[in-house]
Each structure stands twice: as structure tokens, then as C-alpha cells.
Write a structure and sequence with these properties.
The complex is a heterotrimer of chains A (178), B (388) and C (667). Chain A is of the alpha+beta class. Chain A has two domains: 1-30; 39-150, Nucleic acid-binding proteins (OB fold (Dihydrolipoamide Acetyltransferase, E2P), Beta Barrel), CATH 2.40.50.140. Chain A is built from five helices and seven strands, in the order αβαββββββααα. In chain A, helix 4 runs antiparallel to helix 5. The longest helix of chain A has 30 residues, at 3-32. Chain A is elongated. Chain A starts with a helix and ends in a 12-residue tail after the last helix. Chain B is built from 17 helices and no strands. The two termini of chain B are 41 Å apart. In chain B, helix 14 (298-332) packs antiparallel against helix 15. Helix content of chain B is 72%, strand content 0%. Chain C is of the alpha+beta class. Chain C has helices at 2-29, 33-36, 39-62, 69-74, 81-86, 92-113, 119-143, 168-196, 201-232, 243-268, 272-295, 308-332, 347-379, 387-404, 407-410, 418-424, 426-442, 449-471, 479-488, 491-516, 622-639, 651-659, and strands at residues 383-385, 518-524, 529-532, 535-546, 551-561, 567-571, 574-578, 583-587, 589-593, 596-605, 611-618. In chain C, the strands form two sheets. In chain C, strands 3, 4, 5, 6, 7 and 8 form a six-stranded antiparallel beta sheet that branches. In chain C, strands 2-11-10-9 form a four-stranded antiparallel beta sheet. Classes of the chains: A alpha+beta (178), B mainly alpha (388), C alpha+beta (667). The interface between A and C is large, with 50 and 63 residues.
């Protein structure tokens, strides 16, 4: 076999494998990606029931209800729209009211979001990026988060709201030495 | 001094690591036989494989030819490398390299370090800081930590909570002060003074606003002792904040009227009274009879003054003690970038966000004409989470 | 004083890196041995200073010196000593310091063990290595300086992220970095070869030990990280196709391909251009991984703190090094002469097949990881590409690899006998089919493909052993002869067999865990029992306990075989609450029986006194990690092979060989 032929075989098989993988990637991208939505997106885009999506936002304080057999209901809000979420199972360690959360699942015909998985953040500094962006979009970013961080409404300094207006970018969650 | 000596030694070691090989001659044995060695090794391996019967003779022969060809090519390609300077150009290259390293390494590294480092700060291991120091020389914060450690182990020590509460207040840790007051109240039992102290902490935590919680605490204090000075003062303040200035004036006039003339808080009440337009009544008792006066709620009265005065002056003093020299110096010599950056960090460590922001603004003004310094300020501001 | 000394040492290391980046390369160009000789001592000194700097930071952590901002932010005086030490690299700044420490360690190792390298190659390798190092020193000093100080230090630190307060932090990052950064050496070798415009079979021999060592560490690092996630996150999952995991998987796949193509290059002087390209790509993927994790474009537990200026800095490093390397490659690759010929069916052909599929698989992971980021940047649309995507793309590409793996070692160089190899693998394939049938018969549940996975795994293991059996003439010759031959086999042959068999072992674990894993989630009150697999668990109640810097809720379960009274184990899963960070972690309890595990993790306590519990039975799950250990063991065997041993040819031999460079041309 000559050098030229050898090279042709190599290039041919290379292209063949590449074509197969491109096909695999495209079909997988079509079938298996999941879009992230804020509650407002869900309402505005009229996401059809049964479509798998990720829903992210803040757990609205006071809406968490626990039922039998690890049934949980809560509402996810981006400050503008609320969507009720139902989930069966154990919530992650850092799931708290007023904190960011990302859930994956599908909308039921009744308008309730049935989650098959719930992800909370890893530590007190970490707000899921998608949630942070969604909140920034609706303009509810800093004050909601700040309140949630402070825990008790009583300890929120009155000027936080003002500070929020001037400091919209707070995704350096390091907070440093303050 | 030892620090600079150590820096000097380290620099010398670094320079030596470069100059030493530059000063050495390399002998020609170091020429280029390495790949020849590899191929020789491969030939031996083929021989071993053949001997062990792992490959057939024809394969071995083919492989041998191939490796031999590489061996020859490698031997041809290797040209000796001289260790002697390749003419005057080579000698000059070495000299330039040596001089450059000798000068640039210490100067460059020194400059870079001074730009980022803080040679004036000693190491502060926690254990050394926690060792008892002569009384009076110990920063308040360290005392507090010691007491906190004690309370962590003995959370039911009501006295401890009562001791630490006013300190929290002075340090501006209002939420902690509230917690400490609540614990003291729970563990030592209710009294007018403790209820009033709790109310005071709640007011501080509410940024001076008398919240419903605080009002309730003062009411409870007055229910136990209608004469409690602190509670009466704050109830008056509550009336003022509600816009009932007349009520406030009434309450404070009564308070001033009951006060012994040398009560340290009297001036304070008078000031408040003047603010709401009330008249200042004459002291109830003449100065010379105050020895016989019924013991006014002295400690709590002093506390009012202390909490107000000291939480202002003392805190200011603390801040000044910590950063005053720096801030003062920067006011006169604003061209010190590192100084400003340190000041910013110090304010943030003290939890004084506004001051840090002001300082950031001042620093920006001081370096308005120097964009790269401005950038460093902005970076720090962003890093501290102050960014706008 | 110690933090400042550490800071200055880091600055000096930067200065030395600059010297090392310039002087030896000039020396190599002008063929001046003295200037080239600067490289090795400088590399050693540079390593010494970084090591000192790192030790200074670690010392500050150990004594809780909160006047160092980095210590204040990531440590707590009540933490156990081991976590104080490990939290040195449990944060962005410290982990970058670890990164350069390992980078300079590899440079120092080349300086020490590379005595048999040609002087100019060594000078160029160390020079390129120093360029990388200098860029990262500057990055650390400018944007991520771990030695920033606080004038009035607070009395307590802000504690380390509780999830990181685990032994895993002591093992996973150092191993992973040794792997990631180890590939910088192969990168430097590739760049040096391109700079010199000369590359040959000997180059591959010099590079292979480094690639092998880096690959071993990377394998260990990924594997240990996976086990850490498995027991620490409390979800019982061991691989999430999380972008950060993918970031470490990509260099691993590319590095595996590099190992295989370097073999072809060493033996046959072929695939030179491709091997050089792979060496560049592997380290580029390591850099991309560092960028993804450190820049904050991804948020995960690995992203300690995000800061746009850091992201841009790393992006600049990334662009300069990858772009520069690829440009140099495009410019100089044509200088590299073509090597030996081979037929498509041959050992070389098999290794090319391996490379083809590995790199394509790597590309699919790359697409799946970066597509969401690109889409977000371009359209603002947010999507998540999760396990389904990778299962649909990565798995089909790995299947041919697994089928072909046993063939490779059985094919001869240049021209192989596919039919003969297939015949010799018949028994392995037959055994695989028996396992498929048996699995179908025994297990009724699980996915249809699972029995085939089991069969495939067994085929891979037996196929790997076939090579050994063939070479030792097992069953054909007397025992004694076979044993003697086995002893005489080069260790690299054993290494290949172990590495391939490890792949099969790992596959068994993966198939079993994902197909026959049983899970129970329940809210239990004290005294309640749960049946899972063949076990019965009784919940005995909860207790509170105080740890050094946390409080924990401890639940007690006694485990029995179903229907028997005897308690075989007591499991105590816990939930820890860290007040200083206001966060909590789940500590799963594991019972290991053979290679299967019972896994209990706690949810939250409910108002009615019950507690939510997750219980899994995971059959053969430990094989996943044991398989990777077998692979690493194989790598170690190969590394210890006499021929690859670093610095193998003795200087005495070297002298002898110069005497006869005049071997007459045979043509």
C-alpha cells in the first residue's frame, strides 16, 4: 500500500467517525437538552405542559408545605411571577425559604410544576448563575437576595434597598471582608 | 530587620542559582549522544525479543534495518555543542546575561514585592494573640473573643452574658447585644434594668428606631419600676419618633425633675428636651443634699450616658486608634496608593461600608489623573464587594 | 514575617521563571552550552522558592494567622489540623499556588531526571515550561494573591466550605493537579521539538514516561474526586457530567490518546505530527479546564469565587499559549519528516483506530460542555446539557473502543493478522456471551442492554489477558515454561494488560450500579424498618453530637440480613450543621460487603418526629473505582519498565556510543 493510499484510508476513516459523531451530537442535542426558564419565562413563553424544562428562582418564603410520604410543595418566584412546584423526595441540604433553587421537571395541566429533581446551592455564597441572571432581569436581584441572606427581616438595615439600586451587580458572592 | 535580612539572603540565593551555571565551563562529553543511546537500546531489545522467540527472524531483521537507519540519521544530525564561547559574540551574551540577572532580578523582584507586599505587618498567629496580656493593653475585641469562648462552653452563665452585652453594643454588634441581653434576662430573671437594657439593644439594632419589640420591653421595665430612668428616656424618645412632641416633652421634663442635679445623664435629657421644645425644670433637690438623696438608679443611669456617649466616642476612638494615623496621614499625603488601599480594607474589616465608600471616593479623587492607580482602586473596591 | 517571606519567595520564583524562559532558549538557538546549562539549576531554584512560598501559606493556615486575608476567608481556628492544612488549597488563591507548585515540580524533575536528554532539547523544554510558569505566577501575583494581608486581623476566620472539610480535599485536588499540570511537560516537549524543527522516535521515548505519570495521576484524581462526590453529596451518584467533571475528563481522554500514539511513534517513527498535535491539545484542554473552573463562567462547588478580571486573565493566558502553540505547529510541522509505513490492519492501525475514537469522544464531551456556554453568550438562551446527551454520544463512541481494545496488542507491527487475532479472542468473546445469557437468566429487572454490558466487560478483561496467555504460551507449553516466560515479559506488556483489564472491571461496576441499584426513600420514625435488597434496616433513633466546628444530628440504623435476628452492622449517617457558614452537609454512612455497598443518607427531620432517609443498595459499585486503580497499577508497571525508566540508559553506555558514531551507512 502506498503512502498516498494509506493517507486516504486514514483520512477517510477519520471523516467517517467524525460524521457519525456529528450525527450523534446533533440528534442528542435535539432530544436531550433542557431549557432553563424563570417563572416569568414559563408564563410568557407559554411552555406546554409535559415539556421538560428547568425552573429556577427563589423559594417564596412561607410557601413551603410538607405533606405525607415526603411530598413537598413550594412556590418559586422571580419577584414577578410565582409558580407552584410539587416534588416528592428529600430536599437538598441547603434548600431554604428565600433562597435560590433550580428544579427540573415539567408543567402539569393544572399549572403546577412537577419537579423530578431539586438542586439547591452548594453553600451560602453560591447562587445558581441562571437564577441570579433571571432575578437581575426582573430587577429583584439584590434586595431579595440580601433579605434572604440576612435571614430575619428585623435585621435588614433600612438602607439596603437604596444600596441595591446603586449596586445591581452582586454576583461576586465573595462579599469579602465586610 | 530580620525580615529584610531574610529577603537579602533569598535574593542572593536566587541570583546565585543563575550565576553559578553561567560561570561554569561545560566539557564536550555533554555533546549529543542521547538519541543514539535510545536507538542502541532499541536494537538490543530486538535482539532480546529474537532470542526469546517473541518475534520471527524476518520481522527482527526488518526492525533492525529500520532502527539502524534512525541510528545513522541521529549520529549524522548530532553536531557538537561547544562550551567555549562561540567567538566574542558568545562571550558577550554570557556577560550580558550575568549582568542582567545580577541587576534585574533583585531590582525587579524588589519592586514587584513592594507593590504587592506588606512588609510592615508581622505574622499574627492566633495562639500568640490569645495569650493573656497585661490588663488595659488588650484590645477589646480580643477580650470579647475570650468571653465568647467562655460562653460557648457555659451558655447558662447569665452574668457572662450581662458583661458582654454592653461591650457588643459599643462594638456596634447590635444583633449580638440583643441576643446577650435576652439570654441575661432569661437566665437571671426579669428586672426593670434588664428589660430596659434589652430595649436599648433592640433600639440600637433598629438603627435608633424604637420598634414595637423595644417599646414592649420598656413598657415591661416601667411596669416593674415606674422610675427606671433608661426606660423613661426611651419611652419619651418613642413619643418623639411618633410625632407626639408634647408627650415627649412631658415625659422628659418629669425625668429631669426627678433627677439628682449631678446625674451624669441630666445634660443628655436636657438636650433632648430642648429638641422637642420643652422647658428644663430646676433640679428637684439642691446640690448639697444629694448625698442624702435616695439612690437614683445609678448604674442604669450611667449606662444610658455610657451607651450613648461611649458607643459614639468609644467606637470612634477605636476606629481612630486603628486607622486614625493612616487616615490622618492620607489627608495630608494623599499620594500614597497603598495607604488608601489599606484604609479601604481596614474599614471593610470594621464593617464600615459607608466610610469605605467615602474613602474609595477620596482615593479616586487623589488619583484622578493616574488611570493605572485608579484601576487598582477599582479592583479592590470590586474585590471588597463595594462596587457600584 | 512568615507570610511576607512566602510572598517574596513567590515573587523571586516569578523572576527566576523569566530568566529560565529567556536565557536557555537563547542558548539553544546559539548552541551555547553554558547558557543552556542555566536551565536546570534555575528550574530547581524556582521549585525551591515556590515550595517555600507554599509552605509559608500552609504554615499561616496551621497557626490560624488571620492577618492573611486568604486564611481569614477560608479557615477557622476550631477546624481539625488536617483540614487547616488542606484548606490551604481549598480556595482559589491557594489552589492556584498548588498549581504552580506542581508546575515547577515537574520542571525540577525534568532538570534532575533529564540528564540523558540532548542539551538543547532540555534547555528548550525547560524554557517553555518556564513561560507557562511565568504567566501563572503573574496571574497569581496580580489577581489572586494568597498573601494579601489585613492590618487589623479579625479573631475568627470565615471557615472553609463544609463540603470541603473532608479527607477528599487532601487527595483529590493534588492528584488532579499532578495530572493536569503533568501534561505541561509533554506540551513543553512538543513545543521544544517544534522550535528545534526536529523530532524522532527518541523524542517519543523521552516523552512517554512523563505522559504516563501525568495520566496515572489524572486517572487517580478523577477517580478519587468521583468517590468523594459519591459519599459526600449524599445522592449516591458518582458521575454527574457536570461541566467541571468534563473539564477533567477531556484532558484524560486526550492524554490516553497521546499515550497510545506515542507508542507508535517510539516503535515505528510514524504519526509524528499527530503525536505533537495531541501533546499540544492535551495540555490545552487542561488549560481550558482551569479556565472553566477558575474564571467563574461555571458555578459549582469547584468555583471558589468568581471574579471577571481573573477570568479575563486566564482567558488571555489560554489564548496566548494555545494560539501560540497551534501557530508554531502550523508553521513548523511541515519540517517534521514522515516516518515508517504500515498497513491499516496492524498494531499501528489499531492504535490509530484508538486515537480516532478517543479524540472524537473527547470532541463530543467538548461540545456538550461548551455548547451551553456559547449559546448563553450568543443568544442568552439558557440550557443544560446533562447525562442524556453524553449517554447518547459518548457511550456509542466508546463501544467500538472497548470491542477493539483486546485486538490491539494481538496484532503485529506493520501488518497484522486480523483473522488470527479474532481466533485467539474467540474464547474471550464466548465467555462474554455466556455471561450475557447468564445475566439474562438471573436478573429479571434492569435495562435490556445491561447483560450485554456485562458480557462486553468480561470480554474486555479476558481479551486483555489473552495477550499475556499468548505470549507465555499458556496451556500450550508446560507450566514451568509459561511461568518463566511470564517473568521474562517486559513490564510494559503487563502494564497494557492491566490497564485494559481495569477498563473492563470499571465497566462491570458502571453497568451494575446503573442497572441494578435499588433505592428507598422514606420518612421513618424510631423503630421502623426498611427492607432493601437482602437486608433489613431498623431505625434506632437520633442523637445530637458536637464536633470541633459543627453540630451533628446522628441517626442510628442496625442492619440485619432479611429474616435473621443478628445485627451485622450499625450505620450512623449524620447531618452536620456548621454555624460559622450557616450551612450543612450530609454525611452518608456506608456498609461495604465485598464490592457492594449499602448507602444511607439523611434528609431533614420532620415535624412529626420522623426523619427522611435515602437508602441505596449498590451492587458491585466499588468496582468502578477499583477498576481505575487497576488501570493506574497498569500504568505504574509500564512506567517501571526498564526501557521507559526515566534516565534508563546509563552514562557509561553513553560514552561507549559516541566512540562509534561512524557506523558506516548501510545504503
Amino acid at each position: 500500500m502506498t503512502r498516498k493510499q494509506r493517507r486516504l484510508v486514514l483520512i477517510g476513516s477519520g471523516l467517517g467517525v467524525l460524521a457519525i459523531s456529528v450525527g450523534l451530537v446533533l440528534s442528542a442535542l435535539k432530544d436531550s437538552i433542557v431549557f432553563f426558564n424563570s417563572p416569568t419565562d414559563i408564563v410568557e413563553k407559554k411552555v406546554a405542559p409535559g415539556t421538560r424544562v428547568r425552573l429556577g428562582g427563589l423559594v417564596l418564603p412561607g410557601t413551603l408545605q410538607r405533606g405525607d410520604a415526603l411530598q413537598v410543595r413550594f412556590e418559586v418566584s422571580d419577584g414577578k411571577t410565582q409558580i407552584p412546584v410539587s416534588y416528592q423526595g428529600i430536599l437538598p441540604d441547603l434548600f431554604r425559604e428565600g433562597q435560590g433553587v433550580v428544579t427540573e421537571g415539567a408543567l402539569e395541566p393544572g399549572g403546577t410544576f412537577k419537579a423530578s429533581s431539586v438542586l439547591a446551592k452548594h453553600d451560602e455564597n453560591y447562587m445558581p448563575k441562571e437564577v441570579a441572571d433571571a432575578l437581575k432581569k426582573t430587577g429583584h436581584w439584590k434586595d431579595e437576595y440580601e433579605k434572604a441572606k440576612a435571614g430575619k427581616p428585623g435585621t435588614v438595615k433600612p438602607d439596603v434597598g437604596k444600596a441595591a439600586a446603586t449596586t445591581p451587580v452582586a454576583d461576586t458572592p465573595k462579599g469579602s471582608v465586610q | 530587620m530580620t525580615l529584610w535580612m531574610a529577603f537579602l539572603l533569598m535574593t542572593a540565593a536566587a541570583v546565585f542559582a543563575v550565576l553559578w551555571p553561567l560561570s561554569r565551563r561545560r566539557d564536550a562529553v555533554q555533546a549529543d549522544p542521547s538519541d543514539v543511546v535510545v536507538y542502541r537500546d532499541q536494537l538490543e531489545e530486538i535482539a532480546r525479543d529474537r532470542a526469546a522467540g517473541r518475534i520471527a527472524e524476518t520481522e527482527a531483521e526488518a526492525a533492525r534495518v529500520e532502527v539502524s537507519r534512525r541510528l545513522i540519521a541521529a549520529a549524522d544530525a548530532s553536531e557538537p555543542i561547544s562550551s567555549k564561547p562561540v567567538g566574542p559574540a558568545g562571550l558577550w551574551r554570557r556577560r550580558i546575561a550575568a549582568v542582567a540577572v545580577l541587576v534585574a532580578l533583585p531590582v525587579g523582584c524588589g519592586a514587584l514585592y513592594l507593590a504587592f507586599g506588606s512588609p510592615q505587618l508581622p505574622a499574627q498567629p492566633l495562639a500568640a494573640r490569645m495569650e493573656p496580656q497585661p490588663a488595659g493593653q488588650q484590645p477589646v475585641a480580643e477580650l470579647v473573643t475570650r468571653v465568647e469562648g467562655h460562653l460557648e462552653r457555659n451558655p447558662d452563665d447569665g452574668q457572662g452574658w450581662e458583661v458582654v452585652a454592653p461591650v457588643y453594643l459599643r462594638l456596634g454588634r447590635y444583633a449580638d447585644a440583643v441576643r446577650a441581653r435576652q439570654n441575661a434576662l432569661r437566665l437571671l430573671g426579669a428586672s426593670a434594668a434588664r428589660e430596659a437594657d434589652l430595649g436599648e439593644a433592640l433600639v440600637a439594632a433598629g438603627n435608633g428606631v424604637i420598634t414595637a419589640d423595644a417599646k414592649a420591653a420598656f413598657d415591661r421595665a416601667l411596669a416593674r419600676d415606674a422610675k427606671d430612668v433608661k426606660a423613661r428616656y426611651f419611652i419619651g424618645l418613642a413619643a418623639e419618633q411618633d410625632g407626639r412632641r408634647d408627650d415627649a416633652a412631658k415625659i422628659w421634663s418629669a425625668l429631669a425633675a426627678d433627677a439628682p442635679s449631678d446625674a451624669p445623664w441630666l445634660g443628655f435629657v436636657r438636650q433632648a428636651l430642648a429638641r422637642v421644645g420643652g422647658t428644663v425644670p430646676a433640679p428637684a433637690e439642691s446640690p448639697n443634699t444629694n448625698m442624702a438623696a435616695p439612690a437614683a438608679p445609678g448604674p442604669s443611669a450611667a449606662d444610658v450616658a455610657a451607651a450613648k456617649d461611649m458607643s459614639e466616642t468609644d467606637r470612634n476612638e477605636m476606629i481612630r486608634g486603628m486607622v486614625a494615623r493612616l487616615a490622618d496621614r492620607l489627608r495630608t499625603e494623599p499620594a500614597d496608593l497603598e495607604g488608601w488601599l489599606r484604609l479601604l480594607r481596614a474599614y471593610m474589616v470594621l464593617g464600615q461600608r459607608e466610610k469605605a465608600m467615602e474613602a474609595a471616593d477620596d482615593a479616586r479623587r487623589a488619583f484622578a489623573a493616574e488611570p493605572d492607580k485608579l484601576r487598582r482602586i477599582d479592583e479592590l473596591v470590586k474585590g471588597l464587594g463595594l462596587a457600584g | 514575617m512568615i507570610p511576607e517571606l512566602g510572598h517574596y519567595a513567590l515573587v523571586l520564583a516569578f523572576g527566576l521563571a523569566l530568566v529560565q524562559a529567556i536565557v536557555p532558549i537563547i542558548g539553544a538557538r546559539s548552541r551555547d552550552a553554558t547558557l543552556m546549562g542555566v536551565a536546570a539549576p534555575t528550574a530547581l531554584a524556582q521549585f525551591g522558592f515556590v515550595a517555600f512560598s507554599f509552605a509559608a501559606l500552609a504554615a499561616s493556615y496551621v497557626v490560624s494567622d488571620f492577618s492573611v486575608l486568604n486564611v481569614f476567608e477560608n479557615s477557622h481556628s476550631m477546624m481539625p489540623l488536617i483540614y487547616k492544612l488542606t484548606s490551604t488549597w481549598g480556595n482559589h488563591e491557594g489552589s492556584m499556588l498548588l498549581w504552580v507548585l506542581i508546575l515547577s515540580l515537574f520542571g525540577a524533575m525534568v532538570a534532575v531526571f533529564g540528564r540523558n536528554l540532548p542539551a538543547s532539547l532540555k534547555a528548550n523544554v525547560l524554557g517553555v515550561q518556564a513561560w507557562i510558569a511565568a504567566a501563572f505566577y503573574l496571574f497569581i501575583l496580580m489577581t489572586s494573591n494568597p498573601f494579601m494581608r489585613i492590618a487589623q486581623p479579625p479573631l475568627e476566620g470565615r471557615d472553609l466550605n463544609p463540603i470541603l472539610q473532608d479527607m477528599g480535599l487532601a487527595i483529590h485536588p493534588p492528584m488532579l493537579y499532578l495530572g493536569y499540570v503533568g501534561f505541561s511537560i509533554t506540551f513543553s516537549f512538543a513545543m521544544a521539538a517544534l522550535i528545534e524543527g526536529r523530532i524522532d522516535a527518541a523524542w517519543a521515548r523521552w516523552v512517554r514516561p512523563w505522559a504516563l505519570a501525568a495520566w496515572m495521576f489524572l486517572t487517580l484524581g478523577i477517580s478519587m474526586g468521583s468517590y468523594w462526590a459519591y459519599y459526600e453529596l449524599g445522592w449516591g451518584g458518582w458521575w454527574f457530567w457536570d461541566p467541571v467533571e468534563n473539564a477533567s475528563l477531556m484532558p484524560w481522554i486526550a492524554g490516553t490518546a497521546l499515550l497510545h500514539s506515542a507508542v507508535v511513534m517510539e516503535k515505528r517513527d510514524a504519526l509524528k505530527v499527530w503525536t505533537v498535535l495531541l501533546a499540544i491539545l492535551t495540555f490545552s484542554l487542561s488549560l481550558i479546564g482551569t479556565f472553566l473552573v477558575r474564571s467563574g463562567v461555571l458555578t459549582s462547588v469547584h468555583t471558589f469565587a468568581s471574579d471577571p478580571s481573573r477570568g479575563i486573565f486566564i482567558l488571555a493566558i489560554l489564548t496566548v499559549f494555545i494560539g501560540g502553540a497551534l501557530a508554531l505547529f502550523a508553521w513548523r510541522a511541515s519540517l517534521l519528516r514522515q516516518g515508517g509505513l504500515f498497513a491499516p490492519i496492524s498494531r499501528e492501525g489499531a492504535l490509530v483506530f484508538n486515537n480516532l475514537f478517543l479524540t472524537t469522544a473527547c470532541a463530543t464531551v467538548f461540545v456538550g460542555t461548551l455548547y451551553p456556554l456559547a449559546l448563553d453568550a450568543l443568544t442568552g438562551e439558557k440550557i443544560s446539557v446533562g447525562a442524556p446527551f453524553f449517554n447518547a454520544t459518548f457511550a456509542p463512541l466508546f463501544l467500538p473502543l472497548l470491542l477493539a481494545a483486546p485486538f490491539g496488542p494481538l496484532l503485529a507491527w506493520k501488518r497484522g493478522d486480523l483473522y488470527g487475532a479474532a481466533q485467539r479472542l474467540m474464547w474471550a468473546a464466548g465467555a462474554g456471551l455466556v455471561v450475557v445469557a447468564a445475566t439474562f437468566a438471573i436478573m429479571h429487572g434492569g435495562p435490556v442492554l445491561a447483560p450485554f454490558g456485562m458480557g462486553l466487560a468480561l470480554y474486555v478483561i479476558l481479551g486483555a489477558l489473552t495477550d499475556i496467555a499468548e505470549r507465555t504460551a499458556l496451556w500450550r507449553a508446560p507450566w514451568r515454561t509459561s511461568l518463566q516466560r511470564a517473568r521474562g515479559l517486559p513490564r510494559s506488556v503487563w502494564g497494557t494488560a492491566f490497564a485494559h483489564a481495569g477498563l473492563g472491571v470499571c465497566l462491570i461496576g458502571i453497568v451494575c450500579e446503573s442497572s441494578w441499584n435499588t433505592e428507598r426513600i422514606a420518612a421513618l420514625k424510631p423503630g421502623a424498618t426498611v427492607d432493601i435488597s437482602s437486608y433489613q434496616l431498623t431505625f434506632d433513633g437520633v442523637t445530637q453530637r458536637a464536633g470541633p466546628n459543627y453540630r451533628e444530628l446522628l441517626a442510628k440504623f442496625s442492619v440485619r440480613h432479611a429474616g435473621q435476628a443478628e445485627t451485622i452492622a450499625v450505620l450512623e449517617p449524620a447531618k452536620r450543621n456548621f454555624p460559622s457558614r450557616n450551612s450543612s452537609t450530609t454525611e452518608a454512612a456506608l456498609m461495604t460487603r465485598g464490592v457492594s455497598q449499602l448507602y444511607v443518607s439523611l434528609g431533614e427531620p420532620n415535624e412529626d418526629g420522623s426523619i427522611s432517609v435515602r437508602i441505596y443498595h449498590k451492587p458491585f459499585v466499588l468496582l468502578i473505582w477499583l477498576g481505575t486503580l487497576v488501570m493506574v497499577f497498569g500504568g505504574g508497571l509500564s512506567l517501571s519498565d526498564r526501557r521507559l525508566r526515566v534516565g534508563a540508559p546509563k552514562p557509561a553506555k553513553a560514552k561507549r556510543s559516541i566512540e562509534k558514531p561512524s557506523l558506516q551507512p548501510a545504503e
